[in-house]
Amino acid sequence: MTNILEVNNVSKFFGGVRANEDISLTIKQGSIVSLIGPNGSGKTTLFNSIVGTHPIDNGSIKFEGKELSKMLVHEIPPLGLLRTFQQTKIYGQMSCMMNMKISKKVSNAYTRMFDKLPKELDDEAEQYLSFVGLYEKRNLRAGELSFGQQKLLELAMALMNEPKMLMLDEPTAGINPTLINGIIDRLIKINDKYKITLFVIEHNMRVVMNLAQHVFCMAHGKMLADGTPEEIKNDKRVIDAYLGAS
Amino acid sequence: MSKDKKKIRGYGEGRADKVISVDDVIEKSSQIKSKISDKELLSLSNQSKFLEIKNLVAGYGKMEILHNFSLTCDKAQSLCLIGPNGAGKSTVLHSIYGFTNIFSGDVTIDNKNVTKLSPAEKLKNSGVAYILQDNSVFPDMTVEENLLMGGFIKDKVEESRDAANEVLKKYTRLGERRNQKAKVLSGGERRLLEISRALIMNPDILLVDEPSIGLEPKYIDMVFEILGDLQKNEKKTILLVEQNAKKGLEFADIGYVLVSGETAIVGKGDELLQNEEVGRLFLGG
């Protein structure tokens, strides 16, 4: 399998704080990879570096062989690389359908912003909403959904752009365990059905163990360890820094 | 229960292949829901009504979220509310503290009706403190200043200072960092600071909203140990809401399962953990 993402020796400093120091990782096309690590270890910073939210101080980030680190933040999603956030970013006053339709980026030209939304989008939006189990709620205001359902809506919104790779920042934080199972199930199906590579920040080891094929663990801005979920769970360094002694 | 019971660590483990939609959970739980009598609630709280919520109807604005909700809890007892997102768990805590619109029903603490009191009055006079969900430290204030903010309502800052010193003595992790800005604290230390800031007013009742949210596994166990210490050694009554339901039920004496603004099931924490229906519908199997 080819590598869809290659991060080589990336460093990012905020003043004197070394948020990311000499980070390297590769992600194989079509895989599900998880990123774990203590609060403040630099996971979200690494996500931000990859999607171009801020310039990096050192290193290289390649997506399908293209160097991302010199690109602007809006130039990256059209390549097929999207991310979601810890807090849901939806438009609460709009219907679910509307949220879906405005998520589809047609072009970067400002003039296109005022175009009418094409009718074909309806089918596409309905298809993804039923995939995440929100079809019956498609005409409700998104703000009326529960937090867990909003997370699913956000996932469906990301799918509208048919990404090649999705980066998810704590997709299950604050969600009840039963719905977490639903989210894991959807993520595995997304990976399988739409062949989307997934890169997931997560604290919940139940999610990591049931979802990921490979796990990276960061601590203090550095890469601490990587391996299969089983290897990581039993890695002494990871237990000391993150999981806590059993 | 067997003594060698495996303790639940972090967010717990196990498989994740039981997939049920939220709507199904609500439908199925309304089928197993039984009419819960006041007697049943009282037997769980050792016949005490130290904290009592009676037939509460409450919500935000005109929206009614809790429908005829009742609860009793003894002094130095812990009670955990679990249930799907949007079931009204946080609304229970908000109603006790005074953040909601109460349409009818009563909240009493130690035989005093506190339903109509403002949050500030409750904090000052009724011994109730509310610990927010996620990220409520002031990042640019020092650890000590953050603690003093917990007593902003006191007339003299000296009183807060004494209480803060007590806290800093007890929790040496914070004591070592008293003059450092809160933003340099680790996630676990921040949560500890949030909890201990609530102690400045020396409350009898702690309302804790999702203590484990966003926290790395290692610190989840620490946070529950701290809450356990406050309950056992300082006789605090602890009411918590927890999505990490296994850990929450393991910790708490009593568990209430909320669905759509009503209580579906009540029981002792460890009994609910063993309950098959609860496991299937609310604990992710």
Give me a quick take on this structure:
The complex is a heterodimer of chains A (246) and B (285). Chain A is α/β, with parallel strands linked by helices and 246 residues long.
SSE topology:
The complex is a heterodimer of chains A (246) and B (285).
Chain A: E1 3-14, E2 17-28, E3 32-36, H1 43-50, E4 58-63, E5 66-67, E6 81-83, H2 96-103, H3 120-131, H4 147-159, E7 165-169, H5 177-193, E8 197-201, H6 205-211, E9 214-219, E10 222-227, H7 229-233, H8 236-243
Parallel strand pairs in A: 3-8, 3-9, 6-7, 7-8
Antiparallel strand pairs in A: 1-2, 1-4, 4-5, 9-10
Helix pairs in contact in A: 2-3, 2-4, 3-4
Chain B: H1 22-32, H2 38-44, E1 51-60, E2 63-73, E3 78-82, H3 89-97, E4 101-109, E5 112-113, H4 119-126, E6 128-131, H5 143-149, H6 157-170, H7 172-175, H8 187-199, E7 205-209, H9 217-234, E8 237-241, H10 245-251, E9 254-259, E10 262-268, H11 269-274, H12 276-282
Helix pairs in contact in B: 5-6, 5-8, 8-9
Q: What features would you describe in this structure?
A:
The complex is a heterodimer of chains A (246) and B (285). Chain A is of the alpha/beta class and 246 residues long. Chain A has eight helices and ten strands. Chain A has helices spanning 43-50, 96-103, 120-131, 147-159, 177-193, 205-211, 229-233, 236-243, and strands at 3-14, 17-28, 32-36, 58-63, 66-67, 81-83, 165-169, 197-201, 214-219, 222-227. In chain A, the strands form two sheets. A six-stranded mixed sheet of chain A has the order 6-7-8-3-9-10, with helices on both faces. In chain A, strands 2-1-4-5 form a four-stranded antiparallel sheet, with helices on one face. In chain A, helix 2 packs across helix 3 and helix 3 (120-131) packs across helix 4 (147-159). Chain B has 285 residues and is α/β, with parallel strands linked by helices. Chain B has a single domain, classed as P-loop containing nucleotide triphosphate hydrolases (Rossmann fold, 3-Layer(aba) Sandwich), CATH 3.40.50.300. The mean pLDDT of chain B is 91. Classes of the chains: A alpha/beta (246), B alpha/beta (285). At the A-B interface, helix 4, helix 5, helix 6 and helix 8 of A face helix 8 and helix 9 of B.
